[in-house]
């Protein structure tokens, strides 16, 4: 079976490819906008640029299963995903595995809108599909641990909202299982970490591991967006991220679903381990 992975040079894509190689999967193809960035992957590389549909058909020739890792370009993803879904159908791809968002059908976070559009496009395509509705990566917050130590604060607008996050390693392991295992065709998996945390919990963990005085400072959404802009984010993206936090405060990313740990055959990675890795650099 030939497996192709989009976004292969990104953080999740690289972990999935490493997992497939560890499983002994021989026919794995890395798809990327800039294939030269994946020279170190040690597998076949093909150019696949969402914004250049003419690259997608050739990239998918002979592919049995496609892992469609959602694009990182918020605001463009629905159209980009529609292009590769159409190309997959035309190329005769047998199954598409898509990384969506937790509780995509009713998640209020604005980010979910493009995921819902993609899931609808997949349903309309007639392709065999597996949906991996991934919760938040713990690294989304924990990666800022060194900055939190430097400024003695974790900043956000999530209040005491609980986040059922898991690590990229956890989500990559789930993708590898679904790509190589049996019985996953046509399934939808809600994937969340075993233990939820608040940003206050994150600050306390950073403080405990670093020995620094780190606290969580909850900011109004507009103020947090201004902080993110000051850190170099574009105004639209800064506003979006702050808005996501506001939904987190209402429970948008909390789940008691343990499908992820059952799927990967082990507990999901604890917050402490992700913070430790972030502080180690």
From TrEMBL:
<dbReference type="Pfam" id="PF13460">
    <property type="entry name" value="NAD_binding_10"/>
</dbReference>
<dbReference type="InterPro" id="IPR036291">
    <property type="entry name" value="NAD(P)-bd_dom_sf"/>
</dbReference>
<protein>
    <submittedName>
        <fullName>NAD(P)-dependent oxidoreductase</fullName>
    </submittedName>
</protein>
<dbReference type="InterPro" id="IPR016040">
    <property type="entry name" value="NAD(P)-bd_dom"/>
</dbReference>
<feature type="domain" description="NAD(P)-binding">
    <location>
        <begin position="7"/>
        <end position="180"/>
    </location>
</feature>
<dbReference type="InterPro" id="IPR052718">
    <property type="entry name" value="NmrA-type_oxidoreductase"/>
</dbReference>
């Amino acid at each position: 079976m030939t497996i192709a992975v989009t976004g292969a040079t990104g953080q999740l894509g690289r972990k999935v490819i490493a997992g497939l190689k560890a499983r002994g999967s021989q026919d794995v193809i890395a798809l990327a906008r800039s294939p030269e960035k994946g020279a170190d992957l040690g597998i076949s590389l093909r150019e696949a640029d969402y914004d250049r549909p003419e690259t997608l058909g050739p990239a998918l020739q002979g592919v049995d299963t496609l892992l469609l890792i959602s694009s990182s370009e918020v605001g463009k993803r629905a159209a980009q995903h529609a292009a590769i879904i159409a190309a997959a159908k035309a190329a005769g791809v047998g199954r598409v595995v898509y990384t969506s968002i937790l509780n995509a059908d009713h998640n209020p976070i604005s980010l979910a809108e493009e995921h819902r559009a993609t899931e609808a496009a997949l349903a309309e395509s007639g392709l065999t599909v597996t949906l991996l509705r991934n919760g938040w990566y713990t690294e989304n917050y924990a990666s800022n641990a060194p900055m939190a130590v430097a400024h003695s604060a974790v900043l956000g607008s999530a209040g005491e909202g609980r986040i059922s996050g898991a690590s990229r390693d956890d989500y990559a392991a789930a993708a590898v299982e679904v790509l190589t295992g049996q019985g996953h065709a046509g399934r939808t998996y809600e994937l969340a970490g075993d233990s939820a945390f608040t940003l206050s919990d994150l600050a306390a963990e950073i403080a405990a591991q670093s020995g620094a005085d780190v606290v969580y400072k909850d900011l109004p959404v507009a103020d947090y967006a201004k902080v993110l802009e000051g850190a170099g984010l574009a105004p639209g993206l800064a506003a979006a991220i702050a808005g996501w936090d506001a939904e987190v405060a209402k429970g948008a990313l909390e789940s008691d679903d343990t499908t992820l740990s059952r799927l990967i055959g082990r507990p999901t990675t604890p917050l402490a381990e992700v913070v430790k890795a972030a502080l180690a650099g």
